[in-house]
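Inverse folding, one chain.
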């Protein structure tokens, strides 16, 4: 490891440990005139060993003075690759239990949405600015010199001197506000609990707020910039209910006296869990009549996620970023649990399965995935693991633990939080607590799921003995399919067979401890598959003598694996799918496994299409979202194929009855699932050229242009996307005009998404030009790119390459940049095209996107080979349907 000032400690690069902080007294004076800030920080430190050099994190700062005790640094320099300042002293700094390290510094109130930054908004037609912070994971060092590692917890006393007409906020309530003589005032905030630097936060600007209290009297406020029309009422209600829920679940009171949440106009992430001052994108906190049901559910979940961190992550914190999955995975899981508690009608565990579980399993089957507990050394590597694996796989592992251990999991979690509050932990500390409570070795159960890339597919096959099944596990990989094609000629020449994967991972043939819950029509069973193969006897299960008998492995879909079902099992489940007797989560799991097994070459496309037909009576939006996504992807792969009209007809025939049942406009009192299902179905039908959906959309589009409030929020996306995809420049211009005049973030999000849903390269170029203009916030650029239709991605890729320098200059530091990169890559390419893409990215490296690019290229290869395999099979299947 190439390091100069940081030291290698195990599997991490950290600051030398001769100086250890315990308290920061920080005073900042930002200016909105020249976008700079001055600051002073007095850090109470312990000097553990004699030294003449102190290394401290600092970047994009100018340090004008550094002293420790009475010793003034004779030289201050910076080493940017490690983001540190080097403080050199002529005399040795001697060991001492407590002394003060003082630094005076200046910085830039930047526009990069990291560190201490400025955010622009409009009030009464004038541009105004507020200041905000984003420190996670490693950007506190851009605001003040600090020991910027999660394990170096300390207490913070914050002061902010700001213009007299503005308001300041920080993690803690203000103790005093002192009016100064120079039209400024100084806020002094209460002392924080002991916490990590990345959780510190402060904001200043013109704010309004609404307020409420939890059952324990904790003050909860929702802040927004002055003039922002959207409401915080929904967020306030969700926040109070979430906090009350967590106090009960964790058996620990909320650790602070207040919980402020603020909508920041420019914000790179969805939200950030700063202790006591949570920051959000405006569209992740505020609502209006233009906010649809799906957006409200997302807002509720994001709020619940961030509030969960106030305990798990803030009160108890990982000691290094390799345990990020535990922090984010837990908050994702328990955030869904809280959302499901507050809004049971949303059936949020079903949504969890359709989004987080599906996303994690899809990515984790790639060779270019990574273990959820992975060594990270520098800022780029740390930023790169804020990904699907850490959040989604992390949450699925937590859910599997809950499914395995039940109430013992919750009690172990409570023990863990109480034992380690205000401290740092490793993941083993949590597993130890669960083991102590449950009496079962939690670590050995979960270890392979954490340490290894990937997961198993479990073959669940009937034997000749009724009720007896043979279970076999092996690593699931899409390369089981690609290898068959790539090595076919080699096998013919050599007579040898492929091991089933091109993966170079040494753990390909490894084993996992798989806890399997099995449900039959009569009983429940639990099996631990901890070896490659075993036999399982299900008493009194015999579908031959009892045709009504059925069996469903991985009942509840809590296991982090896929099931390769015996055909006899699927045959028994199909009537239960048609009747909706099988629980929704299991109906979803069954169709999802079928699709991905087909993609991996473990089953046929015909088997999948037959199973889809069993879902004709399905009512759940989350299930249809997955099926439509599957079929839409196959449709996009097959766009130029001779069987495409038959495929389009099949999808239309499947979806049209649902559209007819739900009608085009929302019905008063309908379920939230129906509201979301209507959008899913009609958007897909619109993309297939359904005349009724197109006609109804165009009719309402004209009213929308005249009055945006005339369109119900739950059909806005349908109308805008359908009209743009089937329209032209006139409609695109109308939406661009609406975007420019609207201040409603929900509406702007829907409009921006639709602007790129076009049918010609010329209109796409115009949409992408607009996304890069000053009319669109940098945080929102990716929205336009994320919406690019698949048939136009080759043109988008060409545009991206031509404008790369311009795009990179603005977005290189953004955690959202990978969305832009992924959005321009076509879903299938030939080898020459792939080589050209790989050459481009090798010549134009993007530090935070290296793994994402490798994953995207691997997906393209998998898609291209899968497409070759399923084409003939689809044609045969459609021909067989004609004969029936």
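Residues assigned per position:
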């Amino acid at each position: 490891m190439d390091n100069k000032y940081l030291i290698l400690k195990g599997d991490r690069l950290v600051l030398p440990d001769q100086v250890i902080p315990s308290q920061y007294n920080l005073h900042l004076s930002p200016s909105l005139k020249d976008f700079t800030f001055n600051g002073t920080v007095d850090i109470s430190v312990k000097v553990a060993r004699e030294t003449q050099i102190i290394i401290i994190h600092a970047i994009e700062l100018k340090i004008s003075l550094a002293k420790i005790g009475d010793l003034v640094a004779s030289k201050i320099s910076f080493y940017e690759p490690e983001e540190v300042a080097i403080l050199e002293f002529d005399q040795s700094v001697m060991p001492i239990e407590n002394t003060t390290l003082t630094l005076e510094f200046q910085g830039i109130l930047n526009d990069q949405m990291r560190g201490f930054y400025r955010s622009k908004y409009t009030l009464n037609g004038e541009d105004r600015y507020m200041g905000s912070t984003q420190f996670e994971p490693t950007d506190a060092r851009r605001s003040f010199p600090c020991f910027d590692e999660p394990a170096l917890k300390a207490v913070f006393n914050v002061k902010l001197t700001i213009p007299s007409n503005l308001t300041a906020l920080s993690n803690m309530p203000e103790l005093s506000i002192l009016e100064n003589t120079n039209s400024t005032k100084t806020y002094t905030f209460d002392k924080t609990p002991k916490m990590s630097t990345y959780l510190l936060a402060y904001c200043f600007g013109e704010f309004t707020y609404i307020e409420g209290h939890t059952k324990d009297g904790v003050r909860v406020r929702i802040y927004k910039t002055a003039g922002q029309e959207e409401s915080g009422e929904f967020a306030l209600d969700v926040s109070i209910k979430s906090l009350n829920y967590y106090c009960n679940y964790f058996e620990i009171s909320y650790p602070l006296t207040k919980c402020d949440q603020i909508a920041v106009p420019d914000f790179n992430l969805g939200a950030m869990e700063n202790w006591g001052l949570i920051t959000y994108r405006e569209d992740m906190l505020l609502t209006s009549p233009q906010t649809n049901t799906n957006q409200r559910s997302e807002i509720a979940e994001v709020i619940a996620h961030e509030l969960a961190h106030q305990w798990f992550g803030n009160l108890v914190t990982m000691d290094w970023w390799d345990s990020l999955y535990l922090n984010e995975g837990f908050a994702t899981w328990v955030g869904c649990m809280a959302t499901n508690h507050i809004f049971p009608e949303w059936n949020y565990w079903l949504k969890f399965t359709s989004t987080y579980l599906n996303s994690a399993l899809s990515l984790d089957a790639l060779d270019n995935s990574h273990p959820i507990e992975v060594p990270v050394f520098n800022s780029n590597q740390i930023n790169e693991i804020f990904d699907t694996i850490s959040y989604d796989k992390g949450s699925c592992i937590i859910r599997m633990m809950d499914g395995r251990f039940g109430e013992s999991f919750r009690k172990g979690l409570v023990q863990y939080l109480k034992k380690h509050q205000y401290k740092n932990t490793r993941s083993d500390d949590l597993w130890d607590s669960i083991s102590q409570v449950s009496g079962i070795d939690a670590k050995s159960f979960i270890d392979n799921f954490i340490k290894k890339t990937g997961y198993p597919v479990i073959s669940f096959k009937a034997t000749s003995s009724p009720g007896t099944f043979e279970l076999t596990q092996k690593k699931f990989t899409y390369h089981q399919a690609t290898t068959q094609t790539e090595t076919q000629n080699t096998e013919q020449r050599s007579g040898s067979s492929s091991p089933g994967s091109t993966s170079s991972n040494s753990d390909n043939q490894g084993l996992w401890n798989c806890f399997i819950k099995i449900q039959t029509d009569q009983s429940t069973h639990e099996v631990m598959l901890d070896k490659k193969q075993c036999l399982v006897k299900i008493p009194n299960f015999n579908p031959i003598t009892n045709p009504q008998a059925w069996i469903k492995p991985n009942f509840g879909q809590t296991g982090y694996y896929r099931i390769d079902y015996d055909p006899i099992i699927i045959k028994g489940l199909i009537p239960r799918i048609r009747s909706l007797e099988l629980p929704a989560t299991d109906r979803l799991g069954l169709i999802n496994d079928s699709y991905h097994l087909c993609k991996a070459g473990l089953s046929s496309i015909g088997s999948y299409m037959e199973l889809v037909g069993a879902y004709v009576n399905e009512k759940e939006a989350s299930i249809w979202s997955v099926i439509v996504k599957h079929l839409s992807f196959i449709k996009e792969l097959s766009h130029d194929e001779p069987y495409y009209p038959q495929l389009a007809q099949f999808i239309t025939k499947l979806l049209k009855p649902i559209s007819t049942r739900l009608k085009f406009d929302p019905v008063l009192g309908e379920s939230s699932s129906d509201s979301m299902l209507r959008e899913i179905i009609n958007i897909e039908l619109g993309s297939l050229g359904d005349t009724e959906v197109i006609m109804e959309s165009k009719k309402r589009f004209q009213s929308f242009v005249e009055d945006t409030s005339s369109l119900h929020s739950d059909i806005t996306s349908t109308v805008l996307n359908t009209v743009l995809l089937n329209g032209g420049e006139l409609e695109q211009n109308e939406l661009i005009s609406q975007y420019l005049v609207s201040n409603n973030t929900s509406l702007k999000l829907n409009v921006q998404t639709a602007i790129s849903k076009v049918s010609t390269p010329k209109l796409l170029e115009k949409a992408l030009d607009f996304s890069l203009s000053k009319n669109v916030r940098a945080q929102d650029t990716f929205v336009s790119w994320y919406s690019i239709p698949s048939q136009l991605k080759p043109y988008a890729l060409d545009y991206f390459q031509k404008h790369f320098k311009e795009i990179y200059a603005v977005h290189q530091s953004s955690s959202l940049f990978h969305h832009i990169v992924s959005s321009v890559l076509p879903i299938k390419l030939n080898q020459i095209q792939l080589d050209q893409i790989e050459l481009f990215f090798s010549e134009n490296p993007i530090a935070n996107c290296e793994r994402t690019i490798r994953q995207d290229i691997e997906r393209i290869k998998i898609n291209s080979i899968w497409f070759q395999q399923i084409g003939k099979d689809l044609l045969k299947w459609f021909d067989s349907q004609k004969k029936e």
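The chain is about 45% helix and 20% strand. The CA atoms of residues 208 and 224 lie 6 Å apart.
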